[in-house]
Design goal:
The protein is α+β, with helices and mostly antiparallel strands. The chain folds into four domains: 29 residues; 285 residues, Beta-lactamase (3-Layer(aba) Sandwich), CATH 3.40.710.10; 106 residues, Lipocalin (Beta Barrel); 133 residues, no CATH class. The chain is built from 17 helices and 23 strands. Strands 16-17-18-19-20-21-22-23 form an eight-stranded antiparallel barrel. The protein has a seven-stranded antiparallel β-sheet with strand order 3-2-1-15-14-13-12, with helices on both faces. A two-stranded antiparallel sheet has the order 4-9. A hairpin with a 2-residue loop joins strand 1 and strand 2. The chain is globular, with a radius of gyration of 29 Å. The relative contact order is 0.10.
């Protein structure tokens, strides 16, 4: 018996040694579907991924951390924090701007006060404020709406400041920049920086403590996050370790200008990857980190539950984080962007006890972090691909689904609505184009066109069977049963409303181009006509109507380069001070042009039957007049007529 036991023990030891000595790919194959377990294998996977991504996407530097079952598995830095100084990224030392992943501090703070009985998720937020959110709708806005981004606020441009001296207190800024309420609370999710900042300010009001200090005392210090701060500007010792932000322009990486956030508690934090690992552990373990607890077990569990969904068939909002399902795994995640440079992602797999955080210092956008998450899931939790079977009447269904859809967090009431015309802006429209074979091609949903097929009267699946990264496209229907709203399964932060043909980008740009050509024909043609007919008699009313119309056209044409010059900066840093004056001046141009056009039309009525105006000349003038009216309609539709700053 002892001989048998010894032989079994020796055999087990040999098998263990062989497994340890096996090359990394073999060990990785043994771990497929079990998630990351071996730090060495995980490190090799991350090294390969980031080495390729940084070079391919022109990224200066990145940091990543992965946790599992309450422990830090791996934390690594890649590339450079400062290209000029050749300073490398060190995961434990280098601070990156978190962008909106820093909103997690806000939501944890709110839930801390809820469990203490100091806040009520279902109370009117005006209960806690010294200013009043207008009662546009009968239903009041509550903290529950703020947590799920369903308050119904319009998007607010200009959240960045160029200098810390431009920053004012949260209460002052929020009370003087209340966005319009464009829908009833609880109707749709529409990601709102203002809503998050409002929640942070409520924490300030209830605790009588600035939000950055509250976070330090009740979240950062208990978790040992000594390399994280929400102060603006950063304390000197942390600023010395903060990464520079970069944008890839003109074929090279350039340092981006420093920016600050006007909305405290909406994403102003800087943190290291290892500090964010501590926060991930606390969230995964329902509020606990080691011997420390920042939330009760019940509250920590509540934060992982679904709070709102647009439709039972799509993922919803948890308490501040978005649900997604990749590779069959339920994920709670949040992305962050800071100005045009930093971006980050935090993704938690609650059922697996796994979390991954990554931050990049170049180019902004969500694509970098989403690519990492997709690769991580594909590597550790792979699933089989099943090609979907389209409906028998797919061509008819696809034709009903085709159209243009606009995000619920577009800038509905400000000049920044123009961003809907720019596919890469993050607020661009999605076009669904039906083909005769019953497939649907999406344009504007991600960087590439994607092909979909109808698998239900109101559901599209990717034609190649992949469920990631967007999930299914699910449609809401109007009273007549037609699709009028689009939900993306893995993006509960927003919905998409179908827009009428006259608000689509194709019609808008076509109208704009047609008006421009007609204006050019007038600017070029009228002086030539006047020179040819210089010996002929023309009435003064005729000449005046042409001169007024010419002045209107000149102002219209001048408006285009001027708005292109000032609008991007106003969208980024806000129309404040001198920039606000510049915006108002530019927006005066079409108003003056409209006044001149009206004067021209009234004068033309007097000159219509008088000598000196040929039929062809009158027809061309009418065409120019219609183009002028069409141009004003275009500007009004896109919030560029008047002072909608």
């Amino acid at each position: 018996m002892n001989i048998i036991v010894r032989r079994l023990a020796i055999t087990a030891m040999l098998l263990a040694l062989l497994a340890a000595a096996a090359p990394a790919p073999l060990r990785a194959a043994q771990l497929v579907g079990l998630g990351p377990r071996d730090p060495q294998e995980l490190g090799a996977f991350l090294d390969t991924f980031f080495r390729d991504q940084l070079e391919r996407e022109h990224i200066a530097g990145a940091a990543v951390s992965v946790v599992k079952d309450g422990e830090l598995l791996v934390a690594r830095g890649y590339g450079y924090a400062d290209l000029a100084a050749r300073a490398p990224v060190v995961a434990e030392q280098t601070l990156f701007a978190t962008g909106s992943t820093g909103k997690l501090f806000t939501w944890v703070a709110v839930m801390q006060l809820v469990e203490q009985g100091l806040l009520d998720l279902d109370a009117d937020v005006n209960t806690y404020l010294t200013f009043t959110i207008p009662a546009t709708y009968p239903e009041p806005i509550t903290l529950r709406h703020l947590l799920s981004h369903t308050a119904g606020f319009d998007n607010l441009p200009g959240i960045y400041a160029r200098d810390p001296h431009e920053l004012v207190s949260a209460g002052l800024y929020l009370s003087t920049h209340i966005p319009e309420r464009v829908r009833a609370p609880g109707e749709l999710a529409a990601y709102s920086n203002y809503g998050a900042a409002l929640a942070g300010h409520i924490v300030e009001e209830v605790t009588h403590t600035p939000f950055a200090r509250y976070a330090e005392q009740h979240i950062l210090a208990p978790l040992g996050m000594a390399s994280t701060s929400l102060r603006q500007p950063l304390p000197a010792d942390l600023a010395a370790r903060a990464s520079v932000g970069y944008s890839y322009t003109g074929g090279q990486l350039r340092a981006a200008p420093q920016r600050y956030i006007r909305l405290p508690a909406a994403g102003e934090s800087y943190a290291t990857a290892t500090d964010m690992a501590r926060l991930m552990v606390a969230l995964l373990q329902r509020g606990s980190y080691g011997e420390v607890r920042i939330l009760s077990e019940a509250t920590g569990g509540q934060m992982q539950q679904q709070l709102f969904t647009h439709d039972p068939r799509v993922n919803g909002m948890a308490y501040g984080m978005a649900e997604a399902r990749l590779g069959g795994e339920r994920i709670l995640k949040h992305n962050g962007v800071f100005a045009t440079s930093f971006n980050s992602i935090v993704a938690l797999l609650p059922e697996r006890g796994v979390g991954i955080y990554a931050s990049y210092n170049s180019n902004g956008g969500f694509a970098q972090g989403e690519e990492l998450l997709q690769a991580f899931i594909d590597h550790y939790y792979p699933t089989d691909t099943v090609t979907p079977t389209p409906l028998a009447d797919a061509p008819q269904v696809a034709a009903r689904m085709a159209g243009t859809y606009r995000t619920s967090n577009s800038f509905a009431r400000s000049f920044a609505k123009l961003l809907a015309l720019l596919p890469g802006s993050g607020y661009g429209d999605i076009q669904l184009i039906a083909a005769s074979d019953g497939s649907v091609t999406s344009v504007g949903l991600g960087p590439q066109r994607l092909r979909w097929v109808p698998v239900a009267p109101d559901v599209l699946c990717l034609a190649d069977g992949r469920h990631d990264p967007y999930g299914d496209l699910v449609f809401g229907t109007d009273a007549a049963g037609g699709p009028d709203r689009l939900f993306i399964e893995n993006n509960p932060f927003r919905a998409y409303d179908r827009v009428p043909w006259y608000e689509t980008g194709g019609f808008a740009l076509g109208l704009f181009a047609a008006c421009g050509l007609i204006f050019v024909s007038a600017i070029a043609g009228w002086p030539i006509t006047a020179f040819i007919n210089r010996g002929r008699r023309a009435s003064s009313a005729h000449r005046l109507s042409i001169q007024l119309a010419g002045g209107a056209i000149a102002l219209y044409l001048l408006f285009l380069p001027m708005i292109i010059l000032v609008a991007p900066e106003a969208i980024s840093v806000g129309a404040e001070g001198g920039l606000r004056a510049a915006m108002r001046t530019v927006l005066c141009l079409p108003l003056l042009g409209g006044a001149l056009l009206l004067g021209s039309a009234l004068t033309a009525v007097r000159a219509w039957g008088l000598a000196g105006w040929s039929r062809l000349g009158r027809a061309h003038y009418l065409l120019v007049l219609l183009a002028g009216v069409g141009y004003l309609w275009f500007l009004n539709t896109w919030n560029l007529l008047g002072f909608r700053i």
